[in-house]
Amino acid sequence: MVCLFIAAKKEESLLPDVSGLCSLMAHTYTKHQLLRMERKVLFALNFDLSYCPPLHLLLLLASVARCSATMVWMARYLLELSLLEGQCVVFLPVQLAGAALCLARQVLQECPTPEGEAAWCLASSIHVGSEATLLRIMHILASAAANFNSKETCATFIKFSSPETLQVSRHPGLNNAASLLGVCS
Questions:
Q1: How far apart (Å, rounded) are the C-alpha atoms in residues 86 and 152?
Q2: What are the tens digits of pLDDT across the range 56-75?
């Protein structure tokens, strides 16, 4: 409950009342105990609450690389699939974002403009890990995308098959994971 309270303080505009949190816990803890535990958690974290999620990094990289809306939605789809893959927890957010964008670029095979290609070179120069690491993540994401009909990924597939998301989960390039793997250019 304390972690939820801290997260709400960081992300929400309307904060939950401490008394309300205590009542949600059936008054197992008092307001004083809850606030004291908040202090302990913040001290344990050294007050470092500055986590940048992969989606924010993806949007930053895509902006620098001047990616099309379709490419951004495809990368977002692949990135969301990474949330369902236990193997992805060991990778840094920037590595997940970079691999999702790189794989999206391979799937869509859009013809880059000279300006877009220069921007992509700039974006790819941002350190996102070794090529081997990126290829490993891309393989995980490609496999997840190829298993779109699994029970775990069904909701994500449906979410990204809507017109608002440009129906990227239905792209034919996602059907064969093996064809997606290669060197990120």
A1: 12
A2: 999 988 888 888 999 999 99
Tell me the H-state helices in the chain. 2-11, 18-24, 31-44, 54-64, 69-82, 93-108, 114-124, 131-146, 154-159, 177-180
Q: Give the Cβ contact number of residue 63 at 10 Å.
A: 12
**Rg (the chain; Cα; Å):** 20
Is residue 61 a contact partner of residue 126, using CB atoms and an 8 Å limit?
yes
Instruction: Say which amino acid occupies 61.
Output: L
70/168 Cα distance (integer angstroms) = 7
Q: Are 135 and 183 in contact (CB under 8 A)?
A: yes
Phi-psi region of 113 (alpha: psi -120 to 50; beta: other; left: phi over 0): beta
